[in-house]
Amino acid sequence: MQNVMNLSFNALGENEGFARVAVAAFATKLNPTMDDLAELKTAVSEAVTNAIIHGYDSNPGGIVYITATIDDGEIDVIVRDEGRGIHNIEEAKEPLFTTKPEMERAGMGFTIMEHFTDMLDVESSMSTGTIVRFKKRLAGKRVRCV
């Protein structure tokens, strides 16, 4: 059975932790491993942080939206903002690329999300925002014995 969760919150850095915990709590229905849960939380953190810092330029008046759907052992997470958008998605996905070097940003957000999820998709339009969607299989994984 499909289960859906929707969240929205102000683009405040302190809400990143709330988003991590909320999505992780929602995912526990799938009985994930601790490693899978940590990876999911990290991907959520990266997407939310990008929305806050890059999408809204740390303007707390912006709203970050999260939709998480659980279906058939997989969680599908969408993090959306209505911020400034990404000029060049492929460039933004390059390791070490950042638009905020003065903030000592590492430029690894999308790389981390790609590594910790099974699927990552990014859509963006200038001045209308960005949608980051990722999927991660959490249930029904086969354990290989050697």
TrEMBL record:
It is an enzyme of class 2 (transferase). Residues 35-140 form the Histidine kinase/HSP90-like ATPase domain. Keywords: ATP-binding, Kinase, Nucleotide-binding, Serine/threonine-protein kinase, Sporulation, Transferase. Its EC number is 2.7.11.1. GO terms for molecular function: ATP binding; protein serine kinase activity; protein serine/threonine kinase activity; sigma factor antagonist activity. The keyword ATP-binding applies. It catalyses: L-threonyl-[protein] + ATP = O-phospho-L-threonyl-[protein] + ADP + H(+); L-seryl-[protein] + ATP = O-phospho-L-seryl-[protein] + ADP + H(+). One of its GO terms (biological process) is asexual sporulation. It holds the Pfam family HATPase_c_2. Belongs to the anti-sigma-factor family. Binds to sigma F and blocks its ability to form an RNA polymerase holoenzyme (E-sigma F). Phosphorylates SpoIIAA on a serine residue. This phosphorylation may enable SpoIIAA to act as an anti-anti-sigma factor that counteracts SpoIIAB and thus releases sigma F from inhibition. This is Anti-sigma F factor. It comes from Domibacillus mangrovi.
